[in-house]
Amino acid sequence: MQEYLASYARNFGIDSLLRLETKVESVVPDAGGWLVTTKGDGVPETERFDRVVVATGVFCEPAVPKFPGVDEFRAAGGVLMAGTEFLDLDDARDRHAVVAGYGKSACDVTVAIASVATSTDIVARQLLWKIPRKVAGF
């Protein structure tokens, strides 16, 4: 996947725009835009942008909300984990699994565990259409 993304960036000439190993220190609203302060080689740098996209997923810090009854659930043998913590299909093998959410990471986990779990359910606030409704006008 890494090589594919690098190849894609090179092919479309956007690789020179990437800033890897750079920490975002702050994002502050500024007159219809955003001031973004980053720190790459230890030197802070601030730039103004019209738009900011926050794109997190499987490489982010997991955020598992506190659910009522989670202690009882775990005491009965249940396991609660973020998608980034799910690393072994055997954790879902022959179990009844529930995936909370319907984003890319949740769908990836669901597809993987559905092949080994006794049952797999998805709980989501809103179901989204995952593919374009039309491709090439059809």
Automatic annotation (TrEMBL):
The protein, known as: Flavin-containing monooxygenase
Family: Belongs to the FMO family. Belongs to the FAD-binding monooxygenase family.
Highest rank taxon of the organism: Bacteria
Keywords recorded for this protein, A-Z: FAD, Flavoprotein, Monooxygenase, NADP, Oxidoreductase
Coiled coil: none
Gene Ontology molecular-function annotations: flavin adenine dinucleotide binding; N,N-dimethylaniline monooxygenase activity; NADP binding
Native species: Amycolatopsis methanolica 239
